[in-house]
Prior knowledge:
about 475 residues; alpha/beta; eight-stranded parallel beta barrel; 15 strands; binds beta-D-fucopyranose
Amino acid sequence: MSHPLDLPGGFVWGAATAAFQIEGATSADGRTDSIWDTFCRVPGAVVGGDTGEVACDHYHRWPEDVALMAELGLDAYRFSTAWPRIVPEPGRIEQRGLDFYSRLVDGLLERGITPWLTLYHWDLPQWLEDRGGWTSRDVVDHFTEYALAVHGALGDRVRHWTTLNEPWCSAFLGYAGGQHAPGRQEPQAAVSALHHLLLAHGRVVQELRAVDPTAQLGITLNFTVPDPVDPSDEADVRAAALSDTMANRVFVEPVVLGAYPQDAIDALAAVGTALPVRDGDLEVIGTPIDFLGVNYYTGTAVTGHAPEPTEVMPNGAPVERPLSNPSVGVVDAYPVSRGLPRTAMDWEVQPEGLERLLVRLHRDYTGPAGIPLYVTENGSAFDDEVGPDGEVDDVERTDYLVQHLAAVSDAVAAGADVRGYFAWSLLDNFEWAYGYEKRFGIVRVDFETQARTPKSSARTYARAIATGAVPLGGTVRA
Ligand code: FCB
């Protein structure tokens, strides 16, 4: 049964990737190591010892990938630029790195695909980490220098700029949990990183605005929807509220409202950490943005009562969701299964959470400020099976996609100003600490041959783009 989507005119249909996850060519054209190159060399840090050295070889195969995007009918492509390709060592701008993105942008524009550029999707140059990384306030100046260099090369053609992707992950998984690069496990370092990430975001919005007043500038945050497993249990309600504070509010409030939530400050103080805020910082962080990018994968039911230990990452750290990372010691919140279907990441499939999230963000934060929302990532990993003719009939991923598109449509019908959706991901790729084991692509990548094969989900997505409708109800097939 075809279900028409209730989406505004000009709705942007896109797909997303990130530099380190797809490019490969990690030492080509003057690029130096990022923290992820280093992290991949740590025994046990990444499943199977996988690295980003080849990945999807997108650095060389980008014309084929752009052709695929055109075939699917995408309006826009969200990608990130690799900082260590562009500033491979202190003070040196690498023209060959800029040229690569310039060719990519031209290739997109020739096909009528709008480039959405993210400046930071987790691949900090290693030379900067050696100087303290995001824990050091100096990173803000370096990020500004890098952003201006990218803008200088591409600003005439790229109109949509995102400063950061998911600073929650950079700060908490990178510096407290240690599941992500640089693999540090120091709560105060994570809290300092959080503040410097947001400060770097605000500074770059100011600087880009100054040189390019009509550019569309935004940030992408990852959100979860934590619900108390028992709404009548005080500990569960507290756990859900604190999860929300530490996963969602501590990022969106300084960016949109210009202030950290007091309960986040209190919770951080209770574990002996503090945000290194100086006078004027919050004005910078709260510099007006033109859009808010929303990444949503799953919601979580939480309890405040400690259950049995849960799954651990390859390096022994706790699983990376729920988003209230326990390794900073702030939140006693534990995920509880609601019996919903799960993806290969073990994340519950909860499309209704996306609708609620978008409606809430619009009501409480972005709506009053007139800021539109874009879903900049949403998608699912499943263990795909390749059929006899090489086809991938990924029924579960297709269902996930369809249900979440319907949730976006429901949010729009409920009044949320949502103007676009980017599927994560265009391609199967390097899924961080999970290496190549977890496949999120709507296009399959055979990592032996680098062959690309659109899965059923890609076909369904293309049809949704072409018709504005999704096949809701019943099993979805290509
Ligand atoms: C998000 C990341 C993205 C990808 C998806 C599955 O947290 O932004 O790079 O790993 O999760």
